[in-house]
Amino acid sequence: TVDYLANILFISAIPDLTQPTKTANHTTSRSSLVDVNLYELDQRILKALQSPRQDASQGQQLIKDAYDYKTYLEKMVTKLEENLSNKLLTIILSQPPQHIHFPFDEEQLKKAFSWTADQWDYFNHIFESSFLIWKRLELLKEDTHEIN
Question: Which domain of life is it from (predicted)?
Fold first, then answer.
């Protein structure tokens, strides 16, 4: 039920998401919209942060997942700001991202994924952006309470 309603909100953002996007290595990619689910992305990001392997491809996947998470979350927030639905906002806020609050070790990630300083900076920027976008959602909820 919660996933179903959250997917309804996601589907409303699909026209915006069909455009090609740039990945972390600056190649053009078209995400598989069927496979996009914020909860699943959050869990994959969390798992990579919890148990980083000595695997550069896992690091690249983590960057891609974090970027996709941020991008889709931002599109949802923008849609909600344009056309507020308290019910959908409540549903989304009921599933806060776990990875944002996970205390990961920067040096461990850099070493495990063989990240350059630029890759770390890019990941960190995406990570912080996701946190700020989530805060926008929380503020949107506060604003709706003040109006009602």
Answer: Eukaryota
Question: Per-residue confidence at 61, pLDDT binned at 50, 70, 90?
Answer: very high
Residues 6+ apart with CB under 8 A from 63: 24, 119, 122, 123, 126
Instruction: Count Cα atoms within 13 angstroms, Cβ side, for 74.
Output: 15
Residue ranges per structural domain of the chain: 2-147
> What tokens appear for 83 in the block?
């056309």
pTM of the model: 0.73
Q: Residue 70 contacts by C-beta under 8 Å, 6 or more apart in sequence?
A: 126, 129, 130, 133
Residue of 58, 69, 74, 76 lying closest to 119 (CA atoms) = 58
CB 6 within 8 A of CB 40: no
Cα 139 to Cα 146: distance, rounded to the nearest angstrom: 11
- Kindly state the tokens that stand for 55: 């695997």
